[in-house]
Amino acid sequence: MTQVAQGRAIGSLQDFAITRLDNEQLIGGIGFAIGDSGVDASLGYWIARPLWGLGYAREALRRVVAYAFDELAPPLDRLEAHVHRENPSSLRVLDACGFTDCGCEKIPACGLDGITVAHRYELHRGARKVG
Ligand SMILES: CC(C)(COP(=O)(O)OP(=O)(O)OC[C@H]1O[C@@H](n2cnc3c(N)ncnc32)[C@H](O)[C@@H]1OP(=O)(O)O)[C@@H](O)C(=O)NCCC(=O)NCCS
């Protein structure tokens, strides 16, 4: 069993397809991995390139935030995402969903040896603005 399959099986990895309501077309994905604390999770998401800029990521992230904080049992206390400064649309999505920039930090480089520097954005359940 892969780490991903194992995470899905035990619920520490929760990932979702993003589909259009009108035709159910798959247009992206979003998910989070819950850390050892059980109340913190790290987010990731993507949207198919031809559909960038139409608000899909923001809509999907809002829905996942509501799921993680209001529907998941037990609920999460904190969501975080690491974003490179050169990814302004993702920074904008997180900002629009109420996430706060907690500064830069070194993280393992995905698919590469070594490390990379990225902004850590986070949102706490108690700090979010509903509505
Ligand atoms: C990041 C990503 C998910 C955004 O998806 P999306 O559906 O285009 O996002 P949205 O349309 O909801 O919002 C994009 C926002 O960025 C803004 N934006 C787009 N390009 C921008 C730029 N060059 N500079 C500043 N803002 C920009 C848009 O105007 C929009 O903001 P607004 O709604 O306030 O006008 C998409 O670009 C993607 O899949 N990228 C590759 C994977 C990735 O980077 N994932 C995130 C890893 S942290």
List the helices and strands and how they pair.
Layout: H1 3-10, E1 13-19, E2 26-34, E3 40-47, H2 56-71, E4 78-83, H3 88-96, E5 100-108, E6 115-124
Parallel strand pairs: 3-4
Antiparallel strand pairs: 1-2, 2-3, 4-6, 5-6
The structure holds coenzyme A.
What descriptors fit this protein?
alpha+beta; Aminopeptidase; six-stranded mixed β-sheet; 3 helices; binds coenzyme A
Explained architecture:
The chain is of the alpha+beta class and 131 residues long. The protein has one domain: Gcn5-related N-acetyltransferase (GNAT) (Aminopeptidase, 3-Layer(aba) Sandwich), CATH 3.40.630. The protein is 25% helix and 37% strand. The chain is built from three helices and six strands; from the N terminus they run αβββαβαββ. The protein has helices at residues 3-10, 56-71, 88-96; strands at residues 13-19, 26-34, 40-47, 78-83, 100-108, 115-124. A six-stranded mixed sheet has the order 1-2-3-4-6-5. A hairpin with a 6-residue loop joins β1 and β2 (26-34). The termini are far apart. The structure holds coenzyme A. Coenzyme A binds next to β3, α2, β4 and α3.
